[in-house]
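Archive maintenance. Older records in this collection stored only the sequence; we are now back-filling the structure field for every entry so that each record is complete. The fields below show one back-filled record exactly as it appears after the update. Entries are processed alphabetically, and Fe2OG dioxygenase domain-containing protein is next in the queue.

ARCHIVE ENTRY
Title: Fe2OG dioxygenase domain-containing protein
Organism field: Clytia hemisphaerica
Length field: 320
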Amino acid sequence: MPEKLFPIVDISYLSNNFEDSAQWKDNIQFQNDLKIKQLAQELRAGFETWGFLYIKGHNIPGNLVNNVFGQSKTFFDRPYDHKSKYPRGEGIGEGWLGSENEVFDPSLPRDMKEAFDFRPNTEIPDKLSKDMPNLVGGMTELFDHCTELSLKFLRLLAVALDIDTEKYAASHSNMGRCEKNGTSLRSLYYPAIKDTVITDKDRRCREHTDYGTITLLFQDEVGGLEVLSPTGEFVKAVPIPGSIVINAGDMLKDWSHGQYKATIHRVVTSTDQNKCTIARQSMAFFCHPNFDIDIGENEEKINVFDHISKRFNETIIPTN
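Back-filled structure field:
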């Protein structure tokens, strides 16, 4: 299995000089900054070639990320009767998914993972906050950081395409307002695999593309994520401490008329039984446009709410 790295982009200049993306609207300095334009072209090249890249220098506190990983592990380690009090429903929603509750291909073995989908100020996290306030507080804070970082990227992508800087950001203005936008933070847990023979058909997460605009992914050190390369082979997305993996989803692919790739990816199980005994964690921030946005033109037009609901309804089996 190749271990070729896709692009690594240092966004320290952006983080340190343009901290608040809300101030960028009609900001001539931002639009004409040569280093910003260079950074935008690096992002464009990564998304056009791979659909995936690493970013560093993002200024999201490492201790916050580690705290959410730790609090999530505490939640996932609890018994079924506890986790099932917070069930994820069908369609766009939030809550806990067990190992049998997300299916990408019914003809193959189920994914070896659990997940907790989080959207702020909704019934499930409000209920959970009475039991695990540190988990809900940490996920809320991380959600806010990821929202701000996503808005920065959306403006950079507009600069890269030489279009209105606000075109993409304005279409994501309701992130965090769950009645108008489906953006979510998903905590993922891949349990240690013991007393099970691993076959070539087994996956911790099966092949898929993401549904929205962009995804920000935080990995632990265990690894397992693989990305379909431009040459048609899966390559390992090796964990890099302090970095975030960012990838384009279905909506961005359609929005950019295919310039940006929504790349197939998966999480594999090692055929080395010793490695399978190590649990894996990750967190994915799925950035989605507002529900009322239509992408495309004429008969090719796709409504965001309809698209995301359809994708979830095809794959989510609600927790009983």
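Update note: The domain at 8-21+28-314 is CATH 2.60.120.330 (Jelly Rolls). The chain has one domain: 8-21+28-314.
Entry marked complete.
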